[in-house]
Design brief:
The chain is an alpha/beta fold. It is built from 13 helices and 18 strands.
């Protein structure tokens, strides 16, 4: 699984050096690139059919399309030179109405340009949003399949909202069964796995989707997830876990993590906190990069928590409390630890959830390949204790999204 971050406000494409330095300092190693249209769209109220859209007069001076491409390519090269990958490109999305016959041709040309750029940039995925009111899904994506296969790019459909008289409503691809069937049909016609799906959590929140059910319906078709928060009404991109109501979360992060566990997701996680960044002065935006990286790492850790357990050939737990009980109820049978230990000396020599409770001093006698998994909320303090004991093989367990919780009262001892 890879964690990427939307590039908007992270890097100035004209002067990328400072942004790249800030990303490296924060430990961010992967970006999703969002771009503007390579060809300039005609004005909203212009009914004339332009011969070449890029030749349209514009109220502001705009760069030539080739200049924009080279600037983005130079930025990508600079990123990769510094160990930052760019595996995903989000193609331009069009919200204007397609009631002009030439508009579809314009959109198609922009998509072809985006595929060509993906190939030059070495991107793996191209996320493509459907134009509003486009009912001919197979026609639109069918034209993309040949170009995408030639370029070796996978095209990802994405759930999105439609604008109905100023109100955000569900688009067709917000229905998981329809999305899954469409991907299968397109891949069957293409004769290859050219199409996948990108789940936008911001859209799920606005549409009130059952996220876990959505993910399970998509299954292996799901290749990327955009992680962004909002209040369920405004289509904005806030850092996950930052939009709350009366102290409670608004977005269904539990459904997301449980769903991704269900399908053993191993694709792209994309943290999009563009509007959170936009609200901060450029002088202090870099301070948010570290927090965003930790949020992305946390979500990845929670999704992969069972996979992490599989990495340990032998391990012991540190802690004999509710978190240990939760572990044994959900994972103890499949991934049994050798024993547990605890700093509470009154528990030494007893059993807890079928495990012998030992003095932490015995951890010094463990072989080097045996991991000590901290199973206690005071993990920072316990980690420091273990480091002081010269124990280096340390893991962590704190499953905050397990299928069920077991908070039975501890028996009096």
């Amino acid at each position: 699984m890879n964690v990427s971050y939307r590039n908007t406000y992270l890097i100035d494409t004209k002067k990328p050096a400072g942004g790249i330095r800030d990303l490296k300092n924060a430990g961010i190693q992967s970006l999703m690139l969002c771009i503007v249209a390579w060809l300039w769209a005609p004005e909203e109220n212009d009914d004339r059919e332009p011969s070449r859209w890029e030749e349209k007069k514009a109220p502001i001076k705009r760069e030539e399309p080739d200049t924009i491409k080279e600037r983005y390519l130079n930025m990508i090269t600079a990123c990769r030179t510094n160990g930052i990958e760019v595996p995903v490109l989000y193609a331009p999305r069009f919200s204007r109405k397609e009631d002009k016959p030439w508009m579809q041709d314009y959109i198609m040309e922009v998509m072809f340009e985006s595929i060509a750029f993906c190939k030059r940039a070495g991107c793996k995925y191209l996320i493509v949003g459907m134009p509003e009111r486009d009912q001919d899904y197979t026609g639109f994506y069918g034209k993309l399949s040949v170009k995408a296969q030639e370029a070796g790019i996978m095209v990802l459909l994405v759930n999105q909202t439609a604008d109905l008289s100023g109100h955000l409503v569900r688009d067709t691809l917000c229905e998981p069964q329809i999305a899954a069937e469409l991907i299968d049909r397109l891949n069957q016609r293409a004769g290859n796995d050219v199409f996948g799906f990108c789940l936008d959590m911001g859209v799920c929140n606005i549409c009130g989707s059952n996220t876990q059910a959505f993910i399970k319906a998509l299954g292996s078709r799901l290749k990327a997830v955009i992680l962004r928060d909002n209040n369920g009404h405004s289509n904005v991109s806030l850092l996950p876990f930052t939009c709350v109501n009366r102290g409670g979360i608004v977005t269904d992060w539990m459904g997301l993590i449980r769903g991704l566990r269900d399908i053993r997701f191993d694709g792209e996680l994309i943290v999009d906190f563009m509007d959170t960044l936009a609200a901060f002065s450029p002088l202090i935006r870099p301070a948010l990069f570290q927090l965003a990286r930790e949020v992305g790492d946390y979500i990845q850790w929670q999704i992969e928590i069972e996979n992490n357990l599989k990495k340990y050939k032998t391990f012991v737990l540190f802690g004999a409390g509710n978190m240990c009980r939760n572990y044994m109820k959900c994972y103890g049978e499949q991934y049994p630890p050798l024993f547990t230990c605890d700093n509470n000396s009154t528990l030494w020599g007893t059993t807890f959830e079928g495990l012998e409770v030992k003095n932490p001093e015995v951890l010094k006698e463990l072989p080097s390949d045996c991991c000590v998994v901290i199973c206690n909320i005071y993990y920072r303090e316990i980690e420091a204790q273990l480091r002081a004991m010269e124990i280096e093989n340390i893991g962590y367990f704190n499953d905050e999204y397990m299928p069920s919780f077991y908070f039975d009262s501890l028996e009096n001892r």
